[in-house]
Amino acid sequence: IASNVLEQFSLKGRVCVVTGASGGIGSAVAEAYAEAGAEVSLWYNSNPAAKDFAERLSKEHGIKAIAYQVDVSCAERVKEGVQKVVKDFGRLDVFVANAGMPNSAPLLDMPLDEVKQLNSVNLDSVVYCAKYAGEVFRKQGSGNLIITSSISAHIVNVPIDQPIYNATKAYVSHLGKSLAREWREFARVNIVSPGFFTTAMGASDQVRNEAHRMTPLGRQGSTREIKGLYLYLASDASSYQTGSDVIIDGGYTL
Ligand code: NAI
After folding, report:
1. One Pfam family of this protein, by short name (predicted)?
2. Is residue 33 among the annotated active site residues?
């Protein structure tokens, strides 16, 4: 570990995967990693904006950045995606399991198909990403998994009733802590639990008004304000940190 703290934050030569990277938190994280010198594989599902974004990151920061279309709710696609990263980049250092979707309704108004879909996108996908990235980490003897959870993993008193979403996030938070122990000899695992950020997911008027009213800092976070945390967790600056679930919410959960 470098003694100079700024050097500890460098990701030069590291290979990072970010899922849900076509916008919102995921694209901000991919940008942070490119700015810190990493090579980045941006995973997207249906929005190909990630392709142009990868090209831009590559040009602006002189790093290798490639967008892959991977439906993370499908185990086979995730397995192929991880194999492709190792083939194209030669290794895998940091995997950010960030893709997710919001809850459309309270449980009593929600068809079971939607419950299944939410579990599959928010929860099963993280298990698949962890399993296949973890296999590479174990083989390499090093690795770093970061999971995007939510303050909803910790409190349910948010402006919308979203029990299944809340439960998926509680699951991935606990999964991350458990994996930090399971993988203690070769990889670190940490969790980020955002409050209300200005992305497609946090955009409804109801959410915005409540978030502004209830957040001590008086506003939603911008995705620029989450880049530093993901960089810290991906880099050697956090080398003694594993199994932590870091809340970043402008004080909402105080
Ligand atoms: P977003 O909607 O911009 O990003 C979610 C991304 O996940 C999208 O790019 C979407 O294409 C991708 N995705 C959805 N299903 C997928 C699938 N089957 N395969 C691959 N990709 C898929 O929203 P945001 O806010 O950037 O969300 C990122 C993460 O942050 C999510 O896990 C979300 O639950 C979490 N989060 C967001 C908060 C917010 O206020 N924006 C608060 C707390 C947590």
Report:
1. adh_short_C2
2. no
